[in-house]
Amino acid sequence: MNQKKWVLMATAQTPTNIAVIKYWGKRDETLILTITAAIGMRPWFYPLMISVSPLIQTTFCTTTTVAVSPLFHQDRMWLNGKEMSLSGIRYQNCLREIRSRANDVEDEKKGIKIEKKDWEKLHVHIASYNNFPTAAGLASSAAGFACLVFALAKLMNVKDDEGKLSTIARQGSGSACRSLFGGFVKWITGNKEDGSDSFSVQLADEKHWDDLVIIIAVVSSRQKETSSTTGMRESVETSMFIEHRAKDVVPQRIIQMEEAITRDFPSVARLTCADSNQFHAVCLDTCPPIFYMNDTSHRIISYVEKWNRSEGTPQVAYTFDAGPNAVLIARNRNIATQLLQRLLFYFPPPLDTDLNSYVLGDASILKDVGIQSVKDVEYLPQPPGISNNNASLKYKGDVNYFICTKPGRGPVLLSDESQALLNAETGLPK
Ligand SMILES: Nc1ncnc2c1ncn2[C@@H]1O[C@H](COP(=O)(O)OP(=O)(O)OP(=O)(O)O)[C@@H](O)[C@H]1O
Ligand SMILES: C[C@@](O)(CCOP(=O)(O)OP(=O)(O)O)CC(=O)O
After folding, report:
1. Pocket test residue of 130, 175, 178 for ligand 2, highest count of atoms within 8 A of CB
2. Do both 193 and 228 map to the same domain?
3. The whole model's pTM is what?
4. pLDDT tens digits, residue range 171-205?
């Protein structure tokens, strides 16, 4: 290793993912091994071109820069601008595993040569930023740990494929195991005690079903009271229902969901809604009970259920992770337009809201709905099938904002150094 004062960096971006068959319950807390398989989809990656600049932003993603330098005296991490400790077992396990797979790295332009054996002595700096609420039931740990492992793997020239990397990300957070791929991803339970057969596989990539449209209703950005880690531990300890779910329900649902992903929307919708409801029923069966959804979440469920029933076949699926925020999957753009129209009718923004901050992501759906300003929302027609008595039932301000997006891709490396979160000379946050 040459001793000049250099800093070598890599920056990656990873969208978060939503589970359509939920992971809830561990059989090993340290290695993070699940009691059931789980299937997730990658919805939250919608490139949003900002017209006045060449910047490409993404909706709901984590950006992580990792750096290595002989200047660094210890491993350090900054999350959303604040320094945090890396002493926790999850971070330590990820760092140890990835370091053990590091290879020789050479950057001829910068005159940097790191040999495989040097990695044990070198320290890393990590800066990560979530452009969405952290620890609020929007899977920040999934995007966060997947992005960290992916970025470190690139920096350290780790040759393992995404499946192998998923076993490392899994040790940061279970849901991160599914986040190394785009599209639909299955986390295989595995049987081995060391967890080596508990990894993820891609079932279908993001292009396989790209007419799906996803609308996320962010009902609350507040940090939830019971983290997923604590919640699922308490469910395993106290819920009788969780065993039935793990033994008799999820194995069949996984098989059915894999079949349905061949573009059978009604089956995907039925399975997704049923699994979300059952996961929340397990939370309720936990002692003390865990309430992740709120009245707004319940209202959204009943609107979708009524609509689906009136059509005779599901048009929209809903699913809720460990929080009140709804992820709604529409079978195509036409249905998504109707869905957004209905959502805006029931949950109009307060009058002083800028529409561009109320509907984020692919806001072009707003045009299809025929809305240009907040004022237009007031004149939206009443959704069919509601009696006039209920027409006045509007819940202004109960949804913080909506995001329109599509199935998305997996982690990507950002080659443009201006997007790095660490300074290229000091390796400290910019
Ligand atoms: N960008 C990130 N990089 C590294 N770690 C992160 C990042 N974002 C979040 N985390 C870790 O994940 C923790 C939050 O995980 P938690 O499971 O409580 O919430 P969540 O993932 O947002 O919600 P849920 O999993 O229920 O959808 C944070 O306290 C932090 O330790
Ligand atoms: C409801 C879920 O979102 C739970 C996610 O739990 P986490 O992956 O956040 O938990 P840990 O493994 O303890 O970090 C369902 C899912 O993503 O499958």
Report:
1. 175
2. no
3. 0.92
4. 999 999 999 998 899 999 999 999 999 999 999 98
